[in-house]
Amino acid sequence: MTRLKRADAQRNEESLLDAAASVFVTAGVEAPIRDIAAKAGVGTATIYRHFPTRADLIVAVYRHQVEALAEAGPELLASSATPFAALARWIDGFVDFVVTKQGLGAVLSSDDPCFDPLHSYFLARLVPVLTGLLDAAIGAGEIRSDVDAQELMRGVGGLCAGASGNHRYDARRLAGILVAGLRQSG
Amino acid sequence: MTRLKRADAQRNEESLLDAAASVFVTAGVEAPIRDIAAKAGVGTATIYRHFPTRADLIVAVYRHQVEALAEAGPELLASSATPFAALARWIDGFVDFVVTKQGLGAVLSSDDPCFDPLHSYFLARLVPVLTGLLDAAIGAGEIRSDVDAQELMRGVGGLCAGASGNHRYDARRLAGILVAGLRQSG
DNA sequence: CGAATAAACGGGACAGCGTCCCGTTTTGAC
DNA sequence: GTCAAAACGGGACGCTGTCCCGTTTATTCG
Asked: Largest CB tally within 10 Å, which of A61, B100, B123, B165?
């Protein structure tokens, strides 16, 4: 087996996650690395060593919530009246998650290579879930069949991007309209 | 009347607009100021003097197309079979415009104060047009009546944000779905 | 036509940020 | 207790937006 991590390294990683979570709330997911390092009481190199890219850090901070979202898919499918209702509710949950994380929407719809690990993670974890929901709704004849889960996720992410300022902008409602647009007579 | 601009200043402004248009195409609307200045053969201060913020430069570069978009609203309304058809076609035009300008979508759904002049201009020029289209469609009973033009524009902008990479992502189709979601029975 | 003045210019100084290296400290095994 | 490896911290570097200042150029008026 591989060598265990040193105790101090593990402690630092936890401090870093706590600090990042805290800073993300107040300053968004694009807060300066230095701020996070300072809050955790470590040097900038340490954060860079534990989390090579900002995306890795974001992934680590929100892993639990993403997992919960992934698990919610099948559960909603089982507990909702129709697959379409499950889909709508899942999208609502996704929007709530993204919107409450300052700047996450923008990051999700950015194509900066720096965020590739984040995209990969979201895609790997959530696209299959959303695909399941879409397929069920398609199978039930509730929605059009030409929409790709990845495309829809990216679209909803984009919808959430400009939701920070309270410009009378309700991302959840818009996402609802988008989902409504999926309905079809066929 | 106010003093006329100096001839060289006017020439520089034109060079700057040409250079910016050219650089925007290849490097997106967030290309470094220095690159644009270099391409125009002027110093960085000159560009900064003519266009205090990046948003002002973007506005100047795309003014013609935005104007065209604004004028297209009433025309489409007059030439389309139904207000909803006009709305759908106008949104298509808007999406085409945004998508073909690298990074413009991201900028439109950003809330960086740096881009405020851009938001103001788009809002001032296009929101009334879109409101006209929406009102007509609402009046015809074709769509729901609780959607705000500004909100919709921002939403469509967000949809366009992640359209640069060819991640099998078709912003126009997604926007179409969103518009379809506006339809209603009542 | 030529000098004076105001406008405009160019390039560099400065600060903030991400990235990454290197001399130093800490840890854990023997 | 000793020592090699692992981890650390802070600073150097490069890139960017912002802005200032000494110089150049256009216009105007005698």
From this structure: A61
